UniProtKB/TrEMBL annotation, chains A, B:
<keyword id="KW-0479">Metal-binding</keyword>
<keyword id="KW-0436">Ligase</keyword>
<keyword id="KW-0862">Zinc</keyword>
<dbReference type="GO" id="GO:0008616">
    <property type="term" value="P:tRNA queuosine(34) biosynthetic process"/>
</dbReference>
<dbReference type="GO" id="GO:0046872">
    <property type="term" value="F:metal ion binding"/>
</dbReference>
<dbReference type="GO" id="GO:0005524">
    <property type="term" value="F:ATP binding"/>
</dbReference>
<protein>
    <recommendedName>
        <fullName>7-cyano-7-deazaguanine synthase</fullName>
        <ecNumber>6.3.4.20</ecNumber>
    </recommendedName>
</protein>
<keyword id="KW-0067">ATP-binding</keyword>
<keyword id="KW-0547">Nucleotide-binding</keyword>
<keyword id="KW-0671">Queuosine biosynthesis</keyword>
<comment type="similarity">
    <text>Belongs to the QueC family.</text>
</comment>
<comment type="pathway">
    <text>Purine metabolism; 7-cyano-7-deazaguanine biosynthesis.</text>
</comment>
<dbReference type="InterPro" id="IPR014729">
    <property type="entry name" value="Rossmann-like_a/b/a_fold"/>
</dbReference>
<dbReference type="InterPro" id="IPR018317">
    <property type="entry name" value="QueC"/>
</dbReference>
<dbReference type="GO" id="GO:0016874">
    <property type="term" value="F:ligase activity"/>
</dbReference>
<dbReference type="Pfam" id="PF06508">
    <property type="entry name" value="QueC"/>
</dbReference>
Amino acid sequence: MKPKAVILLSGGLDSATVLALAQAQGYECYAMSFDYGQRHRSELAAASRLASSAGVADYKVIKLDLDGIGGSALTDDSIAVPETLEAGIPLTYVPARNTVFLALALGWAEVLGAGDLFIGVNAVDYSGYPDCRPEFIVAFERLANLATRTGVEGTGFRIRAPLQNMTKGEIIQSGYQLGVDYSQTVSCYQADSSGAACGRCDSCRLRAAGFATAGVVDPTRYV
Amino acid sequence: MKPKAVILLSGGLDSATVLALAQAQGYECYAMSFDYGQRHRSELAAASRLASSAGVADYKVIKLDLDGIGGSALTDDSIAVPETLEAGIPLTYVPARNTVFLALALGWAEVLGAGDLFIGVNAVDYSGYPDCRPEFIVAFERLANLATRTGVEGTGFRIRAPLQNMTKGEIIQSGYQLGVDYSQTVSCYQADSSGAACGRCDSCRLRAAGFATAGVVDPTRYV
């Protein structure tokens, strides 16, 4: 029987690659997305398409009203998405987002009996988000094993961040070799309803540079 | 200006006491509850009444579909609420619940500029939940300060668990001295829609014993 894993699937390039890597490593994959009031709603549609074409064992979308909490350009209409790279932690930072996502994935993993949680964080092109750093992942794994029945009485949890030390170009190359169809992914922070990208936000810039470095044809549709 | 704090408010006896303690310590209190498909829905009504009578600065209820994840007698209709004290981690354990709640409270705290998060966990009468232990609280505080802008660039977060080393009797005595109206609280895992308690579940037993030990008249309404 294949070991089970929960994969955080945003619909972006990174998590699509993580799903392909986890499947290639022999895991039965359970994908989870979050409907958290993000502006780039077409990302969710992309996540659903990716889950379906990857043939995951189950796919769950958790609705969260993070927009009620506010505080980020990604969820709060009163804060504009920046179009130049900022110094420090950017305006698109969503307070405690990966902590919330991993916590919910942890709950599902425990119910499923899945010992591995995969997340597409990346330390090289990480855009300055504190909850994408390796020390955050290590601390969450430690917490997970203190917080749960599986951690206390069972075999514990592992938080897998296989893209952690890869550049965007390396991520794209490895996904390309595994057959990931990047035309299905949406990275743009302000994509239109069809998923077409703005080409100007941080996320678009990192993505375009990644395809250029990887030497892979960029299938992104721009507005 | 008073320092701000976010208080996890379940509507039970413990969190009602925590709210009173935080107010007595001079915090401006922001209360947060979760609608997570719990069977004991009257707890949420109690939380709302408690927030209102305490005069909190803001009160937020976050809707979460943990029932879609399942795995607990508190959220899953196919698992009966046990009426005898169990050995080990009980069936009423909800996978990753306090991790999810604290993560969401952390997000709100960061947006508010609140440095303190209060949670009513208790190590003495803790019922065997792994995410009520002191080591869990310490690990979450560490995670919070790695995960957030406030942790990295600001003054950081503190997770306050003032009931940690108190018995149920001591909790009731201290709340009683601060004027907490325990008739407004609901502890029962299977309270009816009016908030009347079963008197038989773990939570009812601990509560009744607490009032007896404290020498305070028990205002609980039983079915």
